[in-house]
Amino acid sequence: MAASKQLIVSCLFLVLLFAQATSQGLxxxxxxxxxxxxxxxxxxxxxxxxxxxxxxxxxxxxxFFHDCFVRGCDGSVLLDKSNNQAEKSxxxxxxxxxxxxxxxxxxxxxxxxxxxxxxxxxxxxxxxxAMVALExxxxxxxxxxxxxxxxxxxxxxxxSPFDNITxxxxxxxxxxxxxxxxxxxxxxHTIGMGHCPLLTNRLYNFTGRGDSDPxxxxxxxxxxxxxxxxxxTTTALEMDPGSFKTFDVSYFTLVAKRRGLxxxxxxxxxxxxxxxYVLQLARTHGSMFFHxxxxxxxxxxxxxxxxxxxxxxxxxxx
Length: 318
Description:
Peroxidase, domain 2; two-stranded antiparallel ribbon; 13 helices
């Protein structure tokens, strides 16, 4: 009798877990009946674009990140406003590129299954396919999001390259992401470029006394000072020098050597959990990172989603 009661309790617990997992309405294959070609259509657009401009991979990944961290993954970063007061006009979003790929993917979908696939789901699929096009990780993308109607420049408060570890952990937790997710998703800095203004303070006046950040390797700091003069506002720098076009674990090797480009990279060594993950990944080959990156991207993709009757399905993502 006691055993059967325990079995019933266990079953109820599993049912509850399943209900929590599916209550938000996201699932792999959401469009399997209404638009079964969706993934193939988006993949073709992304791969064709990335053949011509492979450097779009990092901005497309950041676009999904920037969308999910403001109002949740609702496609609000894609919206235009005539008064330039939309999210995309905020300073952290001015460096985003690749909006045309979202537009082209959506236009191709509208020809085949009009009014079915949300722009927020298109963005989630594009972010994954851009990584695959770079021979990076792949993962099964949960779909079923609907699009938000609000995009406000004043709501853009993203994790910053200047953040310390406490702020980073707090920001990520607010989106349902833990310390491991923070480290894994920071690994997106294995591709793409940063710019000198994000480093000037770190190199020339870290504490207001004309000094550099002591957490930055001194030889690397000297190398960066040659590339970035105090008034330089334009020079681009590889976030993962020598490997910035390749999705790999070399980012973690650099961070472990105190050669992370941004303060937020260096900050990963300032907490025992995040430091442990960095050092572990620095010692591994890419397979573990690839797997974990997909897991964390799926988790991030659940943040603040609109499903069911909430939001809308936009015909044009802008």
